[in-house]
Design a protein that fits this description.
The structure holds two protein chains of two kinds. Chain A is mainly alpha-helical. Chain A has helices at residues 3-15, 18-41, 49-53, 57-73, 80-87, 91-125, 134-162, 165-183, 195-200, 213-237. Chain A is elongated. Chain B has two domains: 4-218, P-loop containing nucleotide triphosphate hydrolases (Rossmann fold, 3-Layer(aba) Sandwich), CATH 3.40.50; 222-282, Alpha-Beta Plaits (2-Layer Sandwich), CATH 3.30.70. The chains are: A mainly alpha, B alpha/beta. The A-B interface holds A 1, 5-6, 8-10, 12-13, 16-19, 74, 77-80, 82-90, 239-240 and B 47, 50-54, 67-74, 77, 79, 81-82, 84-87, 89-91, 94, 97-99, 101-104, 142.
Amino acid sequence: MGFAPALHAEWIKISTLRSQAATLCAILLATVAFSLLATADTEGADTDPLFSAFLGVSFGQIAAVAFGTTAVAAEFQGGALRVSLAAVPRRGLWFAAKATAIALPVLAVGLITGLLTWAVGRAALGDRAETIGTAEGLRAAVGCGLYVTLMALLAAGLTAVLRSGAATLGILIPFLLIVSFVVGDASGSVADFLPDRAGQVALHSTWDGSLGPWTGLAVTALWTAAALAAGAWRTRRRDA
Amino acid sequence: MTSIDVRDLTKEFGPRRAVDRLTFRVLPGRVTGFLGPNGAGKSTTLRLVLGLDRPTSGTATIDGRPYATLPEPLRHVGALLDAQAPHGARTGRDHLRALAASNRIPVRRVEKVLEETGLAPAARRRVKTYSLGMRQRLGIAAALLGDPEVVLLDEPSNGLDPEGIVWIRGLLRRLAGEGRTVLVSSHLMNETASFADHLVVLGRGRLLADTPMRDFIDARVRPRVRVRTSDPAALEKALTRHGHEGVAHDDGHWTVDHARVDDIGRLASEAGVPLLELTAQEGTLEQAYLDLTAAETEFAAAPQEA
């Protein structure tokens, strides 16, 4: 029983649902659209121009979270998980295949989204883009791809723990939309280590917390790894 | 030859014991009917055999191995547990394609089982447009996908139309005829009687019977003879003389319990009683089953108040 056949099966499952394809498109559309709005809107000199170009990621990540959640939540409907685990009884392997089948398309779309957002953002920012170097822009574009992938996997792990898509979205969406905005500029605190705040440092040209772009993404990756480990543990332990 | 071996299998859900020290063996080349009232532990047992639930104690093995250790298990064991499992937004064909890929089963098997279950015309439609009977056929198609030597079906005739029921009967007989091991759970007695060779009967998680179907019925249902005569008085006299008790029915026929046609025919002839009809009434699986489970039914219907 190999990993490749299990991954192939999970990929077929994801690619044969139109709603999943639509959600992937939404990552790109939401990010680019809201970034455009943000660059048009912020005239203030004190805003980070790079982050205003990538502000749309705050909305694109919701689509990534929805993608990871629904891919796993579908297994908890109507005994689908039993069919899956009867075909692939090695549960750890099955869960790894599921996570990989979620990560790869989100990473691809996330990288395209990052590059497109940067291209569109630079054009929209005009003069203000001159302060941002190409390396910095590319770093943010790659950071965007990695960040939405980690968020999709975080949601996938959490869904496997809670065994419910509604519960996962009920926790993650308010967390991403509200908690982050409320905590807002209170940086330099533990809030910097929340999964979304830490990962989004990669989308800034300046930062004053203790986390840089790559260390920030590493912190998000730790959150994601914890969620996936908990999800795998629950999948292995529980009766299907 | 592949058999299913269940040994001392026990599964507890909290304080409730769903499966209680169950031991039985399912042999190849015949259809084994898996009977029991709702909540008797049939589905739980099937999940334990498939390694989906963890037993509290005991073992369930296929060909001597736990299911979870089989490489590419769909090539050895095919199962239908729940017809609602396929995702509604996916097509029937895509559902089967994903399953086939997981066990490296060639795609031509997908087309084959779609043909075999009569789903080919609907294969590219989304599952949510399927009727219950079609979902049932898709579940059976999934079970047959890997051309397995062991087939486990949980209530496969659920929702099938009369044509589908005749079809599945033929399918089960054919699978057993090919030497496969076939275990089919049901709570429909007449249906089970039409395809099973052997019975495993559960009640409250315990094994109540593990016998050939014919023996099961013969051991539990008393033989009975139906007689019609133009001279009821003479018949009654002759029956009484030989220690039989005849019961007259409104439409003019008589029934005699604990009797065989050989005896009644002979005594009627000796007494010169003219017979218009003499038939043996064979016991049905339903009668035998109800006799067995009368004391075991967990959810017996409460007597209705007038």
